Amino acid sequence: MEEKLFWIGVLMGGHLFLSHHFKDKGRFKHDSRFTRAWHAFFAALISFTGMVLLTVSLDNRRGDVVTSMLFSGRQLVYGSLAALAGASYAWWRGLSRKTPVKDGMNTAIKEDMEWSETVFSAVLLASVVMYLFIQAFKIPSGSMEKTFLVGDHLFVNKFLYGFRLPYTKKKLLKFRKVKKGDIVVFQFPSLDPRDFQCGGSQYGKDFIKRVVGMPGDTVAVKEGQLYVNGAAAGGEPYAQYLDKFRYPKGAERTAPGDYQVYWENRLLGKMFSDYIRDNFGPVVVPEGQYMVMGDNRDRSCDSRYWGAVPEDLIKGKAWFTYWPPSRMGFPE
Fold it and tell me: Which residues contact 152 (CB under 8 A, 6 or more apart)?
């Protein structure tokens, strides 16, 4: 969302810059054809922006937002139609009634410039804050129950693990490293939109899980119980198991080396389906990556199925639940 807001801010900034340029050239002193066209262009820009943000918000509520993509084709189509409608209305209105000139400037253009400056400042500031510091996130599924419930809204601390340079994998000023037990929000580790995991394409979407395995750890699941470096993982009051049924082993004939390769290539879920929910591994978490699982262990599509999460895809740590009010607080 922050990148979308940034480029919308750039559009508004471009309009504001050109408006000041044309003003200095004296192009807005009269109610001319050029003045009406420029006012129609601003109406198109505002309509496009409003419709795109509305469509993005609706997609976000359905969990259809792809964070690695700036705008989807559907969002651009709806935005373009709204822009055409806005420009047509502004042009028609300009023809039907003459806009007065005050203090040597067309009042409609003056109002457009004020709105453009307001939107430019607000949107650009919001995008910087969201990109560097805090991101709002909505829980899309029950994989983290009972820590989070479906529909919970929370803030994600994005600067804790470092400030990510735009359009790079580099992070600066890391305040601390990712730790076992952290609840992290990350971009799903898939490079191919055609790669189906967890019942569909998760390409570019944001997920939330808990870190259970650090780089170099040996992780396994036996009869539903998590083991790390050969020892049963204890002290997990957040973990819950709702299914009394346990799947039998389904990959016991697979050589350990092949199993590791399949897991690192995100193939286990496709090969063994639900069998690896209760009997998984052992695997060694690669360097620079993390094993993550949902707290609702029997209802979570996580690293057991599609592999580890590279550090550069981790966006931040779950920080504070702000909605609904009855669930406000810091997650553990």
Answer: 138, 139, 321, 323, 324, 327
Considering the chain, what is the average pLDDT of its residues? Answer: 87
**Which of 4, 158, 209, 315 is flagged as catalytic?**
209
Q: What is the mean pLDDT of residues 189-201?
A: 85
pLDDT of residue 62: 61
Asked if 12 and 46 count as a contact pair (C-beta separation under 8 A), the reply is no
Containing structural domain, residue 24? 2-132
In terms of domains, do 116 and 249 share one? no
User: What is the structure's pLDDT at 74?
Assistant: 78
Question: Side-chain half-sphere of 118: how many Cα atoms within 13 Å?
Answer: 7
Mean pLDDT of 64-73: 62
- Verify whether residue 209 is a known catalytic residue: yes
Q: Would you state the pLDDT for residue 249?
A: 85
Domain membership of residue 332 (yes or no) is: no
Residue 76, C-beta contacts closer than 8 angstroms, at least 6 positions apart = 52
- Cα 256-296-57 angle, rounded to 5 deg: 110
pLDDT score for 274: 86
pLDDT for residue 2: 67
Same domain as 59, residue 176: no
pLDDT of residue 24: 86
- Is 143 part of the annotated catalytic residue set? yes
Q: Is residue 156 part of a domain?
A: yes
Helical axes 107-132 vs 33-62, angle rounded to 10°: 30
Q: How many domains, in total, are found in the chain?
A: 2
Q: Which of the residues 47, 127, 143, 300 is marked catalytic? A: 143
189 and 224: one domain? yes
How far is C-alpha 57 from the geometric centre of its chain's CA atoms? 12
Contact 192/204 with Cβ under 8 angstroms? no
Q: Give the three-class secondary structure for 126.
A: helix
Mean pLDDT for the stretch of residues 309-314: 94
Q: Which residues of 117-130 are buried (b: 16+ CB within 10 A; e: fewer)?
A: bebbeebbebbeeb
218 pLDDT above the threshold of 70: yes
Spatial contact of 148 and 328, defined as CB atoms under 8 Å apart:
no
